[in-house]
Task: structure prediction
Amino acid sequence: MSSGPLELTERPVPEPGPGQLLVKVIACGVCRTDLHLVEGDLPPRHLRMTPGHEVVGQVVATGPGATRFREGDRVGAAWLAGTDGTCRFCRRGDENLCPDSVYTGWDIHGGYAEYLTVADAFAHPLPGGFTDTELAPLLCAGIIGYRALRRAEVPPGGTLGIWGFGGSAHLAAQIALAEGAEVHVFTRSPADRELARSLGAASVQNSFDPSPVPLDSAILFAPVGNIVPPALAALDRGGTLAIAGIYLTDIPPLNYEQHLFQERNLRSVTSNTRGDAQEFLTLAQRLRIKVTTTPYRFDQADQALADLEADRFNGAAVLHM
Ligand SMILES: [Zn+2]
Ligand SMILES: [Zn+2]
Result:
């Protein structure tokens, strides 16, 4: 981020092609994946790509065959921008694993922009009861956090450890708490510890502190491989650790006895299905999830990403057009 990798440029407003919507951006969340993309942790798929995949906007035109939304509708665009719909993963309901999937802000231009095109079939209707700013982080941080929570398979009334407590974790934690889990949070940031406490975490400590209780489930939101061994060691028998991020630094060697034996499980989380998105957005509305955001102007995207990297704000950063 220190080299200022983003550049403000003028491009013509795109034309919506077949099955596409032209969306005027109202707000766009700043996700950790954007940071991994602009810093090159994830290899770029195209040069000079516009990042941003937590897009809240208004449909201003529809392409041929785009029938789900009309001009004036408020829609969301998320990370998963398209799949082939025909491979064996798509056919069995695991479209998040489609080898031909494309992603907003990686394969196609994203929402750090005034306009973008979105596939009609992959645009999300948005729940009521939230401001545009609050909706933005629900679209990736929220959905992925929700998938990670489901992958962590918290048993009824179980204990859940959460490592890292930013945009994604603070939303997933509220669902876990509403479902009756006892949540223990591990994070280095004092502001994040405060947020975790205010949302009802049973305990809050530093990233490498020992867990106060054996954990049935755990989610690693911090992109730090060094946390995997202590998080596994904190699991009770049969417990599950889900790694929520798209990127993780290397995991140090594991010791079978200390970290995996007694049927502990280690899982990754890869993107999400449209079904996850629908489930999560419905649940977020029903549970009246509290979304903590920090606003930035559109032309402050560099600053927002630098602040994300340095843990300088609470919850999720959101750009306003
Ligand atoms: Zn597929
Ligand atoms: Zn994201």
